[in-house]
Amino acid sequence: MKPDFYQILNTDSSRATADLAAEAVAGVPEYFEEVLHYSFIEKSPVNWRAARVVWLCSTKFPELFKPHANKTAKLFSEFKVDGLKRTYAYMLSNYVNELDEDSLADMIDICFKYMLNDEKIAVKYNCMKFLYETCKLIPELSGELLAVIEVNISDGTFRFNGLLKKIYTEIELKIQ
User: Fold this and answer.
1) d(CA 128, CA 134)
2) What letter would DSSP give residue 88?
3) Taking the model in full, what pTM does it have?
4) Percentage of the chain with pLDDT > 70?
5) Do 130 and 92 touch, CB atoms closer than 8 A?
6) Residue 19 to residues 15, 59, 69, 88, 120: CA-CA distances in angstroms?
7) Of 40, 47, 44, 41, nearest to 72 (Cα)?
C-alpha cells in the first residue's frame, strides 16, 4: 500500500518523522518525485519538511535527485522559506557537475546575492558551500567568493573555523 506522504509530512517536524518518510520512499522514484513536488508547491511547514526528506533520500540514493537538479536550481530563487533555501543550496552543492549552464549561472547569481543579503546564517553557509564546489569548475569565481566570505567574517556572520577555514585557505592558495 502506498504511503500517504502528505499526511506523514503534515504530522510534525521531528527527525524521526523525516526518517520515517524517507524510509517509506525507499528509493522508489515515483514516491521521491511526490515528496519533491510537495517541497516545491506546498506551504510551510510541509514544504520544508518535504525538502528534508528529499535530502535524506538523496544521501542514500543520489541518483533519485539527479534528474531534478536543474529544475530545482531554476526554482531556487523563488523559494521563500529558509528551510528550502538551506536544504537545496546544500543538496545542489553535491550536484554542481549535473547542472546545465543556465541553471549553474542562476545558482551562482542567487548564492552570491544571498551571501551579501540579510539571509539566515545557514542559508549563507550552504550558499558558500555551493559556490566553493562551483569554483572547482570555474576557478575564476574564487576571488569573488573569497571577498564575500571576508564580508561575512568582518560583519560577524561567519566565524573563522571548521569548513569555512578550510574553504578560505584553499581558495586563498589558489588565487595567490
Assistant:
1) 10
2) H
3) 0.93
4) 100
5) yes
6) 6, 12, 22, 18, 25
7) 40
In 3D, which of 38, 34, 103, 26 has the Cα closest to residue 72? 103
Q: Which residue ranges of the chain lie beneath pLDDT 70?
A: none
How is residue 152 written as a grid cell? Answer: 561575512
Euclidean distance between CA atoms 86 and 66, whole angstroms: 18
Sequence-distant (6+) residues with CB within 8 A of 24 are 3, 5, 8, 31
Grid cell listed for 119: 539571509
Q: Which amino acid is at 97?
A: N
Residue position matching grid coordinates 544571498: 114
Q: Look over the chain and give the mean of its residue pLDDT values, rounded to a whole number.
A: 95
| pLDDT (tens digit per residue) in 139-163 | 999 999 999 999 999 999 998 888 8
For residue 86, the model assigns a pLDDT of 97
Q: What is the CA radius of gyration of the chain?
A: 17
